[in-house]
């Protein structure tokens, strides 16, 4: 179908839709079933059977299976079956861990997928891009990703970047008219928008004509379907560590076997014991547990309104030393409210808060309402030069669109002006707001076919473009006295933390040029809006907590320096000697000059997105790990350059989200603090189970090595070693990944990004606890065995139980950097349940008679248990009274 050759009416007829109403909800559901989700096909997922079989491809497991086969051929059927069952159970555990990680990552991808503005049942709503169907009417703005192939029916200075399709990096200007040419390539179809291309300027409305694999991008994707899996720096570091640990474990295991054979033990028994010990000692589950810990931590972040797009950000969060945050919407409520109106050279005060449409206008304590000259005209202009709309959510008014535009709509409604007034006016041309222009303009034609321009924007931009001023008795020339009065008014508003917005107009003739450079001059200055966006209630506490954690909070805003200073002071962000820099000062500074003073600066005012990159570079040159927030398309370079790019989930553009590693679903600064806590905790939890796994493995190897060196019988048989591995390494290690953060996690300084895994005495803790666990187990075996062959099974049961219990007690020791006594052992309910289930599995092989000959165990009495608990608690208690 050559959509580009059709006009808008023909497209509507073909797809049974109108651009005024959009599709009905039922229609959309039917088409979603007919065409399928709007997504490109990805590489086929690996079958569950292959994932399961992958659990047995490890070299040591294959050797163990071969040894089991030999045991079966030699008639050792009980041992062979027992080992096979344990290997299968281990395989299932690994499989479920991998599935859990995969599902978490898939859910994460879905959470961070883009959404789009769609007209359904006459109402604009935000829906996930995957749910868009052919015939949907979509709205696109600067910074958005085009969600599907669309036929553009409205274009306001619309440009898209289509390098992904054409290789051409220059933006393409779009229009809505049909093209009467045949066999046009995609790059020449300038009335079409293509899936996954970026809107770099302007806004537009289009009708979806192709989704998923039926798009131009889909045709390219069908030629080469490929997905990339990347590992985080921590996963890579642990993979390297794993190789070293495997080498060490194999050397020690070989030493145990050789010494055992030398001491006269049967070669077959020592070989099987050695292989079992190697399987137990090598932390093959470490990468899987790390992935699960990362993905579970990410799930917790999602519940706290922070969506991680890149897993590496989880590690980096713990290192963050500076948070550069936008003010509006992140540190404040993002519910702009007009509190003052400067008009006719006089100041009016407006009552009412937030988006409540009830309120009044006062001058000299008198309610002036509709009687104040030019007030209705000014508020009408604010409604017309506006892309937002008021909607009702849960019985309350909310704004769909920019909060500043929303504040102007609410201000107009307080005077009784209704949106239906728009029916009397037609927008001929729109010049969208962008951060460079700092203004928005519309050319309007009224019911009498008279044209005029409305411009709103920053006062310092509009005033130089104004030649006239509106007063009570009409339009007069703008003189220096008027300008001085306006500047004083702006300063007074800024002192009250009010954001100022100027509005002006210009009468036009039918034949006037519609170029912005010509239109936006010789304006008539109408007045000023003074708006307030109150600070969020939880931000002040979050900033204080970040300060205690050694993290500096920096406010970045486009607002006036006085407004920014007032809000920063209210939030306790700006210390007494803290500096405030504005955009003008930043322009005159090099990065090196900024770097010299950057540590003293806490507020950047009147900043453009281009300044953000300069700020990031200066902080990074000083050695800081920088988190940077942003929402606009021009914020993307700074977000990408920062160590942790943070985009806004509610107000952010798709371009910014793509560049970011973290998305704030509620646009709230306090959520950044929660994410940092979670990021620090995830890293600490990974350290905890590294400490637990390796200390336990050291203990298992040493108990066997010491016994061989002392020419003693095997304290543990192969099947017991494997059972220890199954009981202690699985669920307890996983539960450590769910551990809550310690109370002082936000009282420590940021982690050094170059810090090794074994930093902060972790290596000492692993070796020392491992030696004590091994020694306690061996002593327990010696005391029970007492050199009497008749006591061997009893001694092995004591050693087996002591080793398991020592590790299960040690897991609680691993929860704290300081001591086992520093934390409530029942705080982590998952860990308690994991330990109880491990004890239950241990009890089964000790007390269930059919399994006693399989696991070489015998029933134990109360005295035995008291002795075992005393020996197994000894390693943790000894170090519990130290600060190590």
TrEMBL record:
Task: List the Gene3D superfamilies hit by this protein, alphabetically.
Answer: Calcium-transporting ATPase, cytoplasmic domain N (3.40.1110.10), Calcium-transporting ATPase, cytoplasmic transduction domain A (2.70.150.10), Calcium-transporting ATPase, transmembrane domain (1.20.1110.10), HAD superfamily/HAD-like (3.40.50.1000)
Main location as per UniProt:
membrane
Keyword Cell division belongs to the record: no
Transport listed as a keyword: yes
Q: Which chain regions cross the lipid bilayer? A: 56-74, 244-264, 270-294, 689-711, 717-738, 766-785, 791-809, 830-848, 860-881
InterPro entries listed in its UniProt record: ATPase_P-typ_cation-transptr_C, ATPase_P-typ_cation-transptr_N, ATPase_P-typ_cyto_dom_N, ATPase_P-typ_P_site, ATPase_P-typ_TM_dom_sf, ATPase_P-typ_transduc_dom_A_sf, ATPase_P-type_domA, Cation_transp_ATPase_P-type
Q: Which domain of life is it from?
A: Bacteria
One Pfam entry name: Cation_ATPase
The chain positions of domain Cation-transporting P-type ATPase N-terminal read: 2-76
SMART domains hit by this protein: Cation_ATPase_N
Q: Kindly give the membrane topology term recorded for this protein.
A: Multi-pass membrane protein
Cellular localization per UniProt: Cell membrane
This protein's UniProt keywords? ATP-binding, Cell membrane, Ion transport, Magnesium, Membrane, Nucleotide-binding, Phosphoprotein, Translocase, Transmembrane, Transmembrane helix, Transport
What the entry lists under NCBIfam families is as follows:
ATPase-IIA1_Ca (TIGR01116), ATPase_P-type (TIGR01494)
Spell out the family assignment given in the record's similarity comment: Belongs to the cation transport ATPase (P-type) (TC 3.A.3) family. Type IIA subfamily.
* Name of this protein: Calcium-translocating P-type ATPase, SERCA-type
């Amino acid at each position: 179908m050559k959509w580009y050759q059709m006009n808008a009416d023909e497209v509507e007829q073909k797809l049974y839709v109108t651009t005024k109403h959009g599709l009905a909800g039922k229609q959309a559901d039917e088409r979603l079933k007919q065409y399928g989700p709007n997504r490109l096909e990805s590489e086929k997922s690996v079958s569950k059977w292959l994932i399961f079989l992958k659990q047995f491809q490890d070299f040591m497991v294959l050797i163990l299976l071969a040894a089991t086969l030999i045991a079966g051929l030699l008639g050792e059927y009980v041992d062979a079956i027992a080992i096979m069952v344990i290997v299968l159970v281990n395989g299932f555990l690994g499989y479920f861990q991998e599935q859990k990680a995969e599902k978490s990552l898939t859910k994460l991808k879905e959470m961070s997928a883009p959404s789009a503005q769609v007209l359904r049942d006459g109402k604009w709503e935000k829906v996930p891009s995957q749910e868009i169907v052919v015939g949907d009417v979509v709205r696109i703005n600067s910074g958005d990703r085009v969600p599907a192939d669309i036929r553009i029916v409205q274009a306001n200075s619309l440009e898209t970047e289509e390098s992904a399709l054409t290789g051409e990096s220059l933006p393409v200007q779009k229009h809505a008219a049909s093209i009467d040419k045949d066999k046009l390539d995609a790059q020449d179809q300038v009335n079409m928008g293509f899936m996954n291309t970026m809107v770099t300027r302007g806004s537009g409305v289009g009708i979806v004509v192709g989704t998923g694999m039926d798009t131009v991008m889909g045709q390219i994707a069908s030629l080469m379907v490929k997905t990339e899996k990347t590992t985080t720096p921590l996963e890579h570091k642990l993979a390297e560590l794993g190789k070293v640990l495997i080498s060490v474990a194999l050397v020690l295991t070989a030493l145990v076997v050789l010494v055992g054979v030398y001491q006269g033990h049967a070669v077959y028994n020592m070989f099987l014991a050695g292989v079992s010990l190697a399987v137990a000692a090598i932390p093959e589950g470490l990468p899987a547990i790390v992935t699960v810990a990362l993905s579970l931590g990410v799930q917790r972040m999602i519940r706290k309104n922070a969506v991680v797009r890149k897993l590496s950000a989880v590690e980096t969060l713990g290192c963050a030393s500076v948070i550069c945050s936008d003010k509006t919407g992140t540190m404040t409520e993002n519910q702009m409210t007009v509190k003052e109106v400067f008009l006719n050279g006089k100041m009016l005060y407006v009552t009412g808060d937030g988006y409540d449409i009830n309120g009044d206008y006062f001058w000299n304590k008198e309610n002036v309402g509709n009687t104040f000259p030019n007030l209705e005209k000014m508020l009408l202009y604010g409604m017309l030069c506006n892309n937002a709309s008021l909607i009702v959510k849960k019985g309350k008014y909310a704004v769909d669109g920019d909060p500043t535009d929303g504040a102007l709509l609410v201000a107009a409604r307080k005077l009784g002006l209704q949106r239906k007034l728009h029916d009397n006016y037609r927008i001929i041309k729109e010049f969208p707001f962008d951060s460079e222009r700092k203004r928005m303009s519309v050319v309007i034609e009224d019911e009498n076919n008279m044209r005029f321009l409305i411009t709103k924007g920053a006062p310092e931009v509009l005033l130089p473009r104004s030649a006239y001023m509106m007063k009570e008795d009409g339009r007069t020339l703008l003189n220096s006295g008027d300008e001085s009065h306006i500047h004083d008014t702006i300063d007074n508003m800024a002192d009250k933390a009010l954001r100022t917005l100027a509005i002006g107009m210009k009468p036009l003739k039918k034949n006037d040029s519609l170029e912005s450079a010509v239109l936006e001059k010789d304006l008539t200055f109408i007045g000023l809006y003074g708006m307030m966006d109150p600070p969020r209630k939880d931000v002040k506490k979050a900033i204080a907590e970040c300060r205690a954690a050694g993290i500096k909070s920096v406010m970045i805003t486009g607002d006036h320096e006085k407004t920014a200073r007032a809000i920063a002071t209210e939030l306790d962000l700006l210390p007494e000697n803290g500096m405030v820099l504005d955009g003008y000062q930043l322009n005159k500074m090099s990065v090196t000059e900024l770097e010299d003073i950057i540590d003293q600066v806490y507020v950047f005012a009147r900043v453009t997105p281009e300044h953000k990159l300069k700020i990031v570079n200066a902080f990074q040159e000083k050695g800081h790990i920088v988190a940077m927030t942003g929402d606009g398309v021009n914020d993307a370079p700074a977000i990408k350059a920062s160590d942790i790019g943070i985009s806004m989930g509610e107000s952010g553009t798709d371009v910014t989200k793509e560049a970011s590693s973290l998305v704030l679903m509620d646009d709230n600064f306090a959520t950044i603090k929660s994410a940092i806590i979670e990021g620090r905790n995830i890293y600490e939890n990974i350290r905890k189970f590294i400490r637990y796994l390796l200390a336990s493995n050291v203990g298992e190897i040493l108990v066997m090595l010491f016994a061989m060196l002392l020419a003693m019988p095997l304290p543990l048989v192969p099947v017991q070693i494997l059972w220890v591995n199954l009981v202690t390494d699985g669920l307890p290690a996983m539960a450590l990944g769910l551990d809550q953060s310690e109370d002082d996690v936000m009282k420590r300084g940021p982690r050094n990004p170059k810090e090794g895994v074994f930093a902060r005495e972790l290596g000492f803790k692993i070796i020392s606890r491992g030696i004590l666990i091994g020694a306690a187990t061996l002593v327990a075996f010696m005391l029970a065995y007492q050199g009497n062959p008749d006591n061997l099974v009893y001694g092995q049961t004591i050693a087996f139980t002591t080793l398991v219990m020592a590790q299960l007690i040690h897991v609680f020791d691993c929860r704290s950097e300081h001591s086992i006594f520093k934390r409530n052992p029942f705080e982590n309910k998952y860990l308690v349940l994991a330990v109880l289930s491990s004890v239950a599995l241990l009890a089964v092989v000790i007390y269930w008679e059919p399994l006693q000959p399989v696991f070489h165990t015998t029933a134990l009495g109360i005295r035995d248990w008291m002795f075992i608990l005393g020996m197994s608690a000894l390693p943790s208690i000894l170090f519990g009274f130290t600060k190590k």
